[in-house]
Design a protein that fits this description.
Length: 222
């Protein structure tokens, strides 16, 4: 088996801490616990589109769901403005605490780093720039250019084509088991960041590597 040359990162939740989005909901007069339910619903609808060969931008799905999930009676502003307030929160997110040291370790091994997000490349750029990590990444890729959301195989194939690399020489790093499963089926190697200590679902293809924090990954890669 050849050595890994390129590390492909999921962005939302894998690199970024989505916790502050709960404050965006509270700003509006909505309950903070609605944030993770809303985000899961965005993923649900994006993945459902992908299974039928269709796609829509993350922001479009996100805003549309917000206008239906937010209760106008509890809001301090019109629902369209409230939805945009939540979406704007993505541009102010920070990376998880373990990310800077993990990125430094991977770069120290001479690996190429790219992102592949179901969101926008602008959000990834803002996130990494804010953490002082943008220069560590060669490319910021988005499924908006691939045509279908992950975990559709064509999304991972798009990343390989853009990097001029075989899928087998890439490793997908994510916190989402469905993303790990999709990458594995496509032919990538996989690494699951299990910050929560949860058990990996047995119905998905198991990751090649499991780590509790990103700095542990560099020493585990072949």
């Amino acid at each position: 088996m050849s050595a890994v040359s390129t590390v492909v990162f999921d962005v939302n939740e894998t690199l970024s801490d989505l916790g502050p989005l709960q404050d965006r909901f509270r700003d509006l007069g909505a309950p903070g616990h609605l944030a993770p339910l809303w985000f899961a619903s965005v993923l649900r609808d994006g993945l459902a589109l992908a299974t039928t060969g269709h796609s829509a931008p993350f922001a479009e799905i996100g805003r549309t769901l917000l206008t239906s999930m937010l209760d106008p009676r509890s809001l301090d502003r019109p629902v369209d403005e409230a939805a945009q307030h939540v979406m704007d929160g993505f541009m102010g997110l920070s990376v998880h605490e373990d990310v800077p040291d993990g990125i430094a370790a991977l770069r120290g091994e001479g690996l190429r780093l790219v992102t592949l997000t179901n969101g926008s490349s602008a959000v990834a750029d803002q996130l990494l720039a804010g953490a002082g990590l943008r220069e560590a990444f060669e490319r910021l890729l988005t499924v908006e250019d691939a045509g279908l959301w992950k975990p559709a195989g064509s999304a991972y194939e798009f990343a390989a084509e853009q990097c001029g690399t075989d899928l087998a020489d890439m490793v997908l790093v994510a916190v989402h088991p469905w993303d790990i499963h999709g990458a594995a089926i496509a032919g990538m190697r996989t690494a699951w960041i299990n910050r929560s200590g949860h058990t990996y679902p047995g119905y998905f293809t198991a990751p090649d590597i499991e780590v509790a924090a990103l700095p542990d990954l560099a020493s585990r890669l072949p």
